[in-house]
Amino acid sequence: MNAELLREYATDESRRGPEPEGAHSGAAGGAACGDVVRVSLLVRGGRIERTSFDAEGCAALRACAAAACEELEGETALGAARLGAQRIGELVGGLSPQGRHAAELVGDAVGRALTSLASSGEPIAPPPAVGERVLVAMSGGVDSAVAALLERERGADVVAVTLKLWADERTDGTLACCSPEAVRGARALAHSLGLPHLTLDLEDSFRRAVVGAFVEGYRQGETPNPCVICNGDLRIDAMVALADRVGAAKLATGHYARLVDDGEGPLLAAAADERKDQTYMLCGLRPATLARLRFPLAELRKDEVRALAARHDLPVASKRESQDLCFLAGEGKRSFLRRHGGLEDRRGEIVSSRGEVLGEHRGYHHFTVGQRKGLGLANGAPLYVLGTDARANRVIVGRREELARRHVRLREPRLHRDPARVNRVRLRYHAKALPCRAHPAADGLELELAEPAYGVAPGQTACLLEGDLVLGRATIAG
Fold first, then answer.
1. Is residue 174 very low, low, confident or very high in pLDDT (cuts 50, 70, 90)?
2. Catalytic residue among 64, 177, 227, 230
3. Which residues have C-beta within 8 Å of that of residue 141, sequence separation ≥ 6?
4. Which of 69, 177, 283, 326 is catalytic?
5. Could you confirm whether 230 is annotated as catalytic?
6. Which of 391, 398, 478 lies closest to 443 in space, CA to CA?
7. Known catalytic residue: 326?
8. Claim to verify: residue 411 and residue 398 sit in the same structural domain
9. Domain span at residue 182?
10. pTM here?
11. What is the pLDDT of residue 93?
12. Residues 383 and 421 in one domain
């Protein structure tokens, strides 16, 4: 440690002051430690023209803020996006373990100022004079980290981006891929790889377009699929737009999917690892978006990805995958729907397909077509949910054979090719693709299945296929 250098920066007031007009600012700290810092960056033409800060707390915090502002003034925006806590600590001559929190707070404030820039719509960087720049979506997990690693190894100029989609005191941010905790983890990981890192804040749009549709779907007695909406209508397109603003030709993600040109342009196709294939969750993507994407993991299996991460000593090599929807992480669906949708438990009838009352339930929105558990009925043969009636708060049940469907109505189709080419459909994530034919209908499409499907739930996504090529998607209407 260089105590003299630390004292010098701690008393440096040259950049301490109010936010410059038009600057992007970020603040960090608060009640937990009592230290608070704000960093402001005035960016013009992709370069930081002026910086300022304010800090309330220990000498180490003031020193780190002053040193970071000095370091960033005159730097490019992408150069600033490489600045992390470790480098900030080095700038002040080193920090004690107790003082490291100061560098972390300042690094977080700088990251939030850059989040403001990334979310503003302003140009950030021109394309590189030589080579190709790629924006890589990094969630803080092993798949996206290896995607970034592979892009860098093939010679691309890599910029990392993490989306902030959800922050809620009832959510366990350590289990979500888009929480403030995930942002900090992904930023630290990107910096450890020497990559610039930006955060794109889409929380307001996510609440409206994705969470709002999720809640409304359950209110209507449907089973919505928010991940398909999020990927197809929000986050991927937003990151492609950011790629343009950072001078990147492509957006790479850690999804397990392939891209195939069928002669009319790019289409999604199943990944090499069928167990991890994620084309269902991406089936809402438009061809124009697909043309901007790269999937570095397309030909890899999950065990190969983890082995690559371990070989490069990535700290996320053995990190477990998130299993919940990001906004449900750590909170049950029942509690979430009550808090965000006002869907309270309310007693209603469980009836047979013939209308016989068999029992009671606590709310139609707790049930989905095909569900067997949670009915609380004593019956000789297993019973399954056949449907729900939201208006009457009623759940209809029957035997498994009553679930069988040979015709499925679809609404809101988004097809990229002639529907006559559709010959298979996947009606749930990880469900077997069923042979079918698609026929235009007045309100969308009708599928004629070659074999019966069980548990076809209104609100779920139908992934429309030709072989393993994704031709589009639609929503199951009934």
1. low
2. 230
3. 177, 254, 316, 319, 321, 322
4. 326
5. yes
6. 478
7. yes
8. no
9. 133-328
10. 0.93
11. 94
12. no
